[in-house]
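User: What would this chain look like folded?
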Amino acid sequence: MSVPVAISRHQPETASAGPVSGLDVARIRAEFPILRERVHGRPLVYLDNAATSQKPDAVIDAISSYYRHTNANIHRGVHLLSQRATEEYEAARAAVQAFLHAADPREIVFVRGATEAINLVAQSYGRTHLRSGDEVLITAMEHHSNIVPWQLLCEEKGATLRVAPINDAGELLLDEFEKLLSPRVKIVAIAHVSNALGTINPVKEMVRKAHALKIPVLVDGAQAAPHLPIDVVDLDCDFYAFSSHKVYGPTGIGVLYGKAALLEAMPPYQGGGDMISSVTFEKTIYNKIPHKFEAGTPDIAGVIGLGAALAWVGSVGIGAIGAHEHALLAYATKVIGAIPGVRLIGTAREKAGVLSFLIEDIHPHDIGTILDQEGIAVRTGHHCAQPVMERFRIPATVRASFAAYNTLEEIDALARGMEKVWEVLG
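Assistant: Here's the prediction, encoded as structure tokens.
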């Protein structure tokens, strides 16, 4: 290992909780009780938002209020609590419809998360349409959740999984993607934003190219939903998946958007209560969409919490959040990239708020452990994207990821934490 040059103490360009790009970050931070926690005696610096975001009081209060005042099962009860719960649940569906700019609330299916949404499409649409010799097309930057379900389906059907490559900056090679499109491809499944690299893919253009051959497209929006305005009608994607817990909502709930005509033609993913219209021992008639895909008692509190999270995002403004995170990313790229021995992984021209890096031959887990002792939470590992790591010939990275409540001072704290890494391990 080379001897490190002394790292200068970086001073924030603005006040620690002041606006970076017009956002009142001090007010926002006051709404997140966990940010007042101390870790190993130090103020918490939470930079693991790509794994899960923290939750504002509005979300915590909405979930608590449901259990305190409304708790009942939905859709099947005639009593007042059931009616209230149903109204709140369906109001959250309307909130998701508005968030995604979908044409119809029937196109919004509640699932456990983006992972289940992708599995639903693979097992319902995919099993219906895929045959031996067919292909599924993904990209080299996918999360495991958008790889493994398609591998399972291809193994079952005798189909082939095709992978569009990326360049050294972590950008999709769009020409190579287009070359892989053919009548054999029955579905394209692509990340809107890479969780490991932060790359924003040109999904609208990718959808257009796939649709030219009448190939449907699923977009994994788990990492896009917290950062970017999403308009599924404008994108013209056939399916869109995202998870609540990455967009300031509770864990265990997520969304599948699907075009109504496709959802209506697809068989149910699971059987049980509420997904049926009538049942006899001879035959079951399925419910209308979206209920056909929501078997059993759902995570009602989680759905209500998601609705509150999207309302909170709307009150702040997704555009303002994105601009703030872009400023944070630019500053972090400059500050962390200037540290001797640091190698940035993922330098695409279009990125969301993710900074992945290595430092010399120090293992990322060791870096993460030392940063934790400084009160700094980052993610270390392969980020459920092992093929990405293989592409860059590395075992893992350190990943700092940003949200509306992060500040320039926290990035400076990360830089000072890296000084500690050199002090301990250099």
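The chain has a mean pLDDT of 93. If you want, I can go into more detail on any region.
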